[in-house]
Amino acid sequence: MAVLIIFHLLAMFVPALGDAFIGVNIGTAVTNMPSPTEVVALLKTQGIQHVRLYDADRAMLRALANTGIRVIVSVPNDQLLGIGQSNATAAKWVERNVIDHVPSTNITAIAVGSEVLTSLPNAAPVLVSALKFLQAALVAANLDQQIKVSTPHSSFIILDSFPPSQAFFNKTWDPVMVPLLNFLQSTGSYLMLNVYPYYDFMQPNAVIPLDYALFRPLPPNKEAIDSNTMLHYTNVFDAVVDAAYFAMSYLNFTNIPILVTESGWPSKGDSSEPDATIDNANTYNSNLIRHVLNNSGTPKKPGISVSTYIYELYNEDLRTGPVSENNWGLFYANGAPVYTLHLTNAGTVFANDTTNQTFCVAKSNADTKMLQAALDWACGPGKVDCSPLLHGQPCYDPNSVAAHATYAINAYYQQMAKSAGTCDFKGVASVTTTNPSHGSCIFPGSHGKNGSSINGTSLAPSTNSTNSGCLSQNYNGGSLTSSLILTLILSVAVL
What we know:
alpha/beta; TIM Barrel; Methane Monooxygenase Hydroxylase, Chain G, domain 1; 9-stranded parallel β-sheet; two-stranded antiparallel ribbon; 31% helix; 12% strand
C-alpha cells in the first residue's frame, strides 16, 4: 500500500544567491496524465520551487505563470537538428516558447536536447550551433542574463571516473566538448549533468557497495580515497560530480559550475533489479536532498553548491524498458505519494517528515528460523501484545512467519520508542518508512490509526544478538512451530 509523503520542498522559500536548491523533473509518459493546472497545484502544495520540463508545452507554461516557480524548458531531441542548422528556426523557437511566456512564467534556462552525445550522436555536430543560435535569440530579446542555455549530459561521457582526479571526457567528443565548454564559460552558464548512482551501482563489473551509492554513513576505513589527491569520498554522487570537474580541468576549464539535471533511484524493479525498492529510493532521495541543501559541495569543491533536479515527479508508466523505467517518481498520476521522504534531519526549513513514522520489518531474505525466534522473543520476554495475531483477529492474515514476525518486532520497536538497536534481531530486521499496515491490520506506530507508542520497560535486544524466547501464552499462531533447542540456543546468545 502506498504511504503518504509530505514533500514540502522549501515552501515559500527562495534560496539566496549561491545556495543549492532541489528541483524536480516533470515527465509526461503517464496514463491519465494530470492536467497542467493539477500538476501546478501539486507543485504549490508541496512547495516545489524549481522544475524542469522535457519540452516547452504552452499549456504547462501558462499554468506555471505567476507562481514564481523557476522553470527549465527543453528543446526535445527531435527538434535539435532543425534548430542547430538554422538561426531563424532557433529565433522562432525562442519567440514561441520563451518570449511569449516571460516574465509571467519564470523561465531560467533552456536545456538543449537530452544526453545528445550518447543517445543522438548524429546530432552532435550541430549541438554547439544550436546553443549559440538560441543564445543569440535571447540576447536579441535582452533575456540572456536571466536565462542560461546548456545541454544535459549523461555521466557516461566521463571515462575513468574513479579516482575522480584521473577522469576525462571521452576523447571522441573533444571536437564538441571544447567549443561547448567555451560557450558555457563565455555565457556564464553551467554544465548540465545527469548523475545516476543507481546505474553506476548496477554496472556488471561494478564493485560499488550499496551504502556508498545510497549516501549511507560509512566508517572511515570504508571511504573511497583518491590516491592522487587524498580526497575522501563517502558517496558515488560526489565522486561523479568531481570526476566532471576534473574532466573539465583536463581540458583547461576550471570555473564552470555544475547543475545536476537528473538524479534519483527507482522504487520498483524486475527480478534483475533487486535493489530497486521503495526503501532504497526513499533512502537515496532523502539523503540526496539533505546533502544538496547543506551546501557542503564536494571534496574537490567544498562549499560550492550543486543544485539538483530529482528524477522525477510522477511514475511514468508508459515508458518502455525494464520495470524500473516506470518507477522513478515521487508521486503516482493520481497525486498519491509513492513513499514518505524521511527528512527530519534536513534542517529547520526543509524537514518534511513531520510524522516521523518509521517501522521495523522483517527483511525479505531473512531466515525463517531466525524470524521465528525473533517472533517468539517479542511475544514473550519482549512483552509485546501479540493478540492481534490470534486466529480471527485483524493481523492473523497473512498467516506466515514473516508477516507475524514483522508485526511483533515492529510492536517491540515502537514500544521501545524506536531506540537505537531495537530493530536488528540478529540482522533479520530493518527500519523502513513504508507503513506495513494492511486492511484492518493497523501496525503500532501508524499515527492517527490506533498506533500510539507505548512506553515499555523491558531491555532492548542488542544490535549484536537476536533475542528469542517462549511464545506468549496468549499467542498460538498456527504457522509458528518454534523449536525448543533453537529457543535455548538463542536465549543463551542473549546472556
